[in-house]
């Protein structure tokens, strides 16, 4: 299969066919209609074989995950996901693999109301790069730079499941049968909190998604906002699957540093806390207050009740 046949067969109709795409796949570039009164939000994520995924990964799951992790970045900024571009480097053309990958990508793009509008294919070591583009009302994008001293710190969902799912894939742990499916689902098929991210536009002072571990990722907010934070680790939400499968110490380490949860981490001023539960309740996603923003720039204090916790692990870093 040649490059252009590959594109036409696997990707030409990937995702939801949106009316705001004037020109999609097939030209030198895409032509898009950005709604009046909106800002364009753009994010890029790469996944490299051997670094982000194993050679024997289910290609359908890989297609899903590539879309979800990019859309998660848009969700963290309160944006509506719209358009995707794919950079695909392949060592050779494997039609069975490509078909499954494209199906996973297309199904997930459709779920998030996105259309694949173009990209590039080349020959080389297997790597996947996606550029996701979305829209947000002008001036309403959430960033990492708005946290203020006294704000409350929240996280959605539960943390640590994906990291334990990875250990399960690597045969590093044994997990009871009743928890295996949940943990593998969380690792292979993450969920982007899109609707909740958009709801946070009127509440949150800063936000980001947790991709490399809470203990490391929170420093992005602290640096951009020029603040510190105090977290009570006993409040960090963990699933029953995680608590049943690990010692308390290991569960905490996975929740703090495991990564790949793609939950939202955000701050809320005290004046808006009262409206938080009411506004977010329709989305069916647990939201937990885990601490507060403090005044010592860049300083992260981890407490367990009233005791300070000495903790060295900061999460995943590429270099």
Automatic annotation (TrEMBL):
Q: Summarize where Mg(2+) 2 binds, as residue positions.
A: 45, 73
Q: Where is the PurM-like N-terminal domain?
A: 26-132
Which residues are noted in the entry as Mg(2+) 3-binding?
28, 73, 209
Task: Supply the alphabetized keyword list.
Answer: ATP-binding, Kinase, Magnesium, Metal-binding, Nucleotide-binding, Thiamine biosynthesis, Transferase
Record-listed substrate binding positions: 52, 260, 316
Top-rank taxon of the source lineage equals Bacteria
As a miscellaneous remark, the entry gives:
Reaction mechanism of ThiL seems to utilize a direct, inline transfer of the gamma-phosphate of ATP to TMP rather than a phosphorylated enzyme intermediate.
Name-wise, this protein is Thiamine-monophosphate kinase
The organism's lineage is: Bacteria, Pseudomonadati, Pseudomonadota, Gammaproteobacteria, Chromatiales
């Amino acid at each position: 299969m040649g490059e252009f046949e590959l594109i036409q067969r696997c990707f030409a109709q990937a995702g939801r066919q949106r009316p705001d795409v004037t020109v999609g796949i097939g030209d030198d570039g895409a032509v898009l209609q950005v709604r009046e009164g909106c800002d364009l939000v753009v994010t890029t994520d790469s996944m490299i074989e051997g670094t982000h995924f194993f050679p024997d990964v289910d290609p359908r799951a890989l297609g899903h995950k590539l879309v979800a992790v990019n859309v998660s970045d848009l969700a963290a900024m309160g944006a509506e996901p719209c358009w995707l571009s794919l950079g695909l480097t392949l060592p050779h053309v494997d039609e069975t693999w490509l078909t499954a990958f494209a199906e996973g990508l297309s199904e997930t793009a459709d779920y998030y109301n996105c259309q694949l509008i173009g990209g590039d294919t080349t020959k080389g070591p297997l790597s996947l790069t996606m550029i996701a583009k979305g829209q947000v009302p002008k001036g309403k994008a959430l960033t990492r730079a708005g946290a203020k001293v006294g704000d409350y710190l929240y996280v959605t969902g539960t943390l640590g499941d994906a990291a334990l799912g990875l250990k399960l894939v690597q045969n590093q742990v044994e997990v009871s049968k009743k928890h295996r499916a949940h943990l593998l689902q969380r690792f292979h098929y993450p969920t982007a909190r899109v609707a909740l991210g958009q709801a946070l536009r009127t509440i949150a002072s800063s936000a980001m998604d947790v991709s490399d571990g809470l203990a490391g990722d929170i420093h992005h907010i602290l640096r951009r906002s020029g603040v510190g934070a105090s977290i009570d680790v006993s409040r960090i939400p963990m699933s029953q699957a995680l608590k049943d499968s690990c010692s308390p110490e290991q569960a905490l380490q996975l929740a703090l540093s495991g990564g790949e949860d793609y939950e939202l981490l955000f701050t809320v001023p005290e004046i808006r806390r009262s409206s938080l539960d009411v506004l977010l309740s329709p989305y069916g996603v647990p939201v937990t207050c885990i601490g507060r923003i403090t005044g010592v720039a860049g300083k992260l204090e981890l407490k367990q009740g009233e005791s300070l916790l000495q903790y060295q692990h900061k999460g995943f870093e590429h270099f």
